[in-house]
């Protein structure tokens, strides 16, 4: 049914405007075109209504269809079709769950878990039940706080690879750093290393075909996640792989906020310095990153490498580094995994909640949790960019400032370039770092991966880095913010109205 509607709609969108712009339009054509358009409105409106989405989302879509039918249809077929996502990804979800259950429980840390305190224990239990991922106390982590640190460490570790390299990225660019990465991967293939590279078809849509072909011809297995032929008719267009993962020989891993591109090194004059946070992982928890990659690879290629060769080798023991838990979330899950863990972190806080997010468009649950925490006397801080890279999201996020500020949340705008870190720190002891933005797309539509750190040295480093970022940020004052001009307020409110659709 939905394919018939999609094909018919596409024809109408392409052919309809042409007829209306010609001199041969007569009354019957206008009548039948209006009738068809009304029929589509009723059908798609009924689909949205029966999906039982959030009421605000439903009303927003219906208003969009009523006010701007053509634009509304295009937006819906590009960004709105999250119906039946459980069915679309059901096979992937059950295979992923079985794989996680298979490796969980092999390492027992009952005594260490009991030492973590009640709140940490509850958070670990929630993350384990939702994400089917065990906690590790024998994993070393290191915070990488910008592109220079991140890419220098990545290139250094890639050159050490002896058996395999697995990469999974949302954005890959054919620029200077992309070229350096390409050359290293080609050299490793020549040395006999197996290289598999998974890139998102939408995030990397600008990636030159020559770049892909050169890697493929050299022997790199290069695969697009969610390839698109006809975006308007593709029911998976809206579900993107936002993960950034590297696994080297099963013992070293990278994950975090940085894609592959020169702007992440601060070479784009539009943004200047790019403040971001990545994580180097060594030891037991790398196996979870490996598993996430192999599951995504199997989903994209139907080739499975879920074997001991990749899951049970090359894991050195690094004891005494606190708890580390890596969690993958996405539209294939029966729960909103990472959002639920974020909510638990905020509501379990006893002293402080610090958040850094480049895109802050929270749903009602997260928004209410932050306001209640601040009203309860906790130190709640939000760090966001001062300058936008995505204007609709940027302006939408600012509409949340007045109610947060009134509740006692302190908001800081980063001044030293563009802030792209995705961090949550609770009580200086628990932290999250990863690919998940504080917005509805990351919570409900994207495939994401986050590391949750419990009393690790990296947690303390995140605390120190957050305080340093605050020093080069400007705090938002409620009185000054409320005086922004009326036109800007209208723009922000319009963007917020569109935010449930993005």
What does this structure look like?
The structure is a single chain. The strands form 3 sheets. Strands 1, 2, 3, 4, 5, 6, 7 and 13 form an 8-stranded mixed β-sheet that branches. The longest helix has 24 residues. Helix 2 packs antiparallel against helix 3 and helix 14 runs parallel beside helix 15. With 502 residues, this protein is of the alpha/beta class.
Task: Compose a concise summary of this entry.
The protein has 21 helices and 18 strands. It has 502 residues and is of the alpha/beta class.
Cα(first) to Cα(last) distance is: 24 Å
Number of helices: 21
Tally of extended strands?
Answer: 18
Mean pLDDT: 84
Question: Spans of 5+ residues with little confidence (pLDDT < 50)?
Answer: 1-11
The helicity comes to 40-55%
Give Rg in angstroms. 24 Å
| Beta content | 15-25%
Global structural class: alpha/beta
Shape: globular
How would a crystallographer describe the biggest sheet?
8 strands, mixed
Q: Which structural traits does this protein have?
A:
disordered N terminus, eight-stranded mixed beta sheet, alpha/beta, 502 residues, 19% strand
């Amino acid at each position: 049914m939905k394919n018939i509607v999609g094909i018919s709609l596409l024809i109408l969108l392409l052919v309809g405007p042409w007829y209306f712009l010609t001199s041969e339009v007569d009354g019957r054509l206008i009548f039948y075109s209006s009738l068809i358009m009304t029929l589509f409105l009723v059908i798609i409106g009924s689909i949205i209504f029966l999906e039982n989405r959030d009421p605000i989302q439903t009303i927003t879509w219906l208003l969009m269809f009523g006010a701007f039918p053509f634009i509304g249809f295009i937006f819906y077929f590009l960004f709105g079709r999250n119906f039946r996502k459980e069915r679309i990804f059901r096979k992937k979800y059950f295979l992923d769950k079985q794989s996680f259950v298979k490796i969980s429980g092999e390492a027992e840390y009952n005594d260490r878990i009991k030492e973590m305190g009640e709140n940490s224990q509850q958070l670990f239990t929630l993350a384990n039940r939702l994400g089917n991922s065990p906690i590790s106390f024998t994993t070393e982590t290191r915070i990488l706080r910008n592109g220079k640190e991140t890419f220098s460490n990545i290139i250094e570790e890639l050159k050490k690879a002896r058996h395999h390299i697995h990469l999974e990225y949302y954005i890959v660019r054919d620029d200077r750093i992309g070229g350096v990465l390409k050359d290293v991967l080609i050299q490793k293939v020549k040395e006999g290393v197996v290289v598999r590279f998974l890139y998102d078809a939408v995030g990397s849509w600008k990636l030159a075909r020559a770049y892909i072909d050169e890697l493929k011809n050299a022997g790199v297995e290069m695969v697009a996640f969610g390839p698109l032929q006809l975006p308007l008719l593709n029911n998976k267009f809206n579900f993107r792989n936002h993960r950034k993962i590297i696994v080297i020989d099963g013992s070293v891993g990278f994950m975090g906020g940085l894609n592959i591109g020169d702007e992440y090194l601060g070479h784009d004059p539009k943004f200047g310095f790019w403040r971001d946070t990545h994580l180097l992982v060594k030891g037991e928890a790398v196996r979870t990153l490996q598993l996430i990659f192999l599951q995504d690879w199997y989903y994209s290629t139907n080739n499975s490498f879920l074997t001991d060769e990749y899951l049970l080798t090359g894991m050195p023991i690094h004891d005494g580094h606190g708890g580390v838990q890596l969690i993958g979330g996405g539209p294939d899950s029966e729960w909103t995994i990472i959002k639920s863990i974020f909510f638990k972190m905020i509501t379990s806080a006893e002293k402080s909640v610090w958040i850094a997010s480049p895109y802050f468009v929270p749903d009602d649950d997260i928004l209410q949790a932050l306001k209640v925490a601040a009203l309860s006397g906790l130190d709640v801080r939000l760090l966001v960019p001062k300058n936008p890279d995505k204007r609709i999201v940027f302006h939408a996020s600012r509409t949340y400032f007045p109610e947060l500020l009134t509740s006692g949340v302190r908001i800081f705008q980063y001044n030293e370039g563009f802030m792209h870190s995705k961090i949550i720190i609770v009580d200086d002891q628990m932290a999250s770092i990863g690919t998940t933005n504080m917005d509805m797309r990351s919570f409900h539509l994207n495939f994401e991966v986050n590391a949750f750190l419990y009393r690790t040295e990296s947690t303390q480093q995140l605390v120190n880095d957050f305080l340093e970022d605050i020093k080069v940020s400007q705090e938002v004052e409620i009185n000054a913010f409320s005086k922004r001009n009326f036109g800007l307020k209208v723009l922000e409110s319009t963007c917020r109205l569109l935010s449930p659709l993005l």
